[in-house]
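Pinned message: reference record for WD40 repeat-containing protein
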Amino acid sequence: MYTIDISLKTTLSGHQNPIFALSEGLDASSIFSAGNDKGVVEWDLETGVFKRIVCAVPASVYCLHLVPELSLLLVGMRNGEIWCVDVVRQQLIKKMNVERGAIFAISTLTEKREIIAIGEEGVAYVWSLDSFDLLYRFTVSNTTVRTIQPYRNNKQLVFGDKDGYIYLYDVADFKQIEKRKIHHMPVTAVAVSDLHLYTGGRDAKLYQLQQKDLSVVRELTPHLFTVYSILPHPHLPIIATVSRDKSIKIWDSTSLALLKNISLERGYDSHRLSINTAMWIEDKLVTAGDDKLLKVWDVSLISK
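Predicted structure (tokens):
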């Protein structure tokens, strides 16, 4: 048996508006953040200081995705544009866009050398990672899609839409394999571990699903309001979730037993408004939200 030890390492301040998106940096000491500030910021996690504004952007940023081997940061925005920014040279390489609506999710299909993005219109767009040419365009849903998550085998990927449906697609030809209604309200978070698929929604539910057919293994209500991020740890058997209810929770990844509840009410110097996004950087959990702050938490397991 084990318990979780979590402590606040540092708070990063400087954003003037809510933060919606985080991305890993080129090494474990840095991270990128963006939101309503109309700029993408890089931070130093070790010293806890602002490093630079990577680029100014014309609209709110809803998602960030780093392609480390190319030093390329993909920036998805409310105006339907995706900017491809070389973060080493601090240079805009390419602008891409969808036909209408905001971009809510971006990922890369590394084996196919492709970028995939989706958003407000429920249509997925696929570009070449080498030439940035548009390769495919296909409709996933007739409503908004906020999440993309490739499986770790890189052979399938899932989407989650505003009506609570989860869609499983084949990466090779983008054919739908399975569609299942999981949530009663919009899907707002999707994550995969080696064994399971996890989904969270505006209905405050968390589901553990079988990857192959999307059947439900476990269901719980982890938060009072929307689940905005589900984060399997890179190597420990735990999952973190964050929510509009301002709390961070740590769960056993198999049983979904609650291991730790982090919030102001529990005595932690945590967020005072909605936590919109989070990510693991090695054993550090980074959270950010409407209070314009990033908080960096040290997390470890303690054997009983």
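Pinned by admin. Summary line: The radius of gyration is 18 Å.
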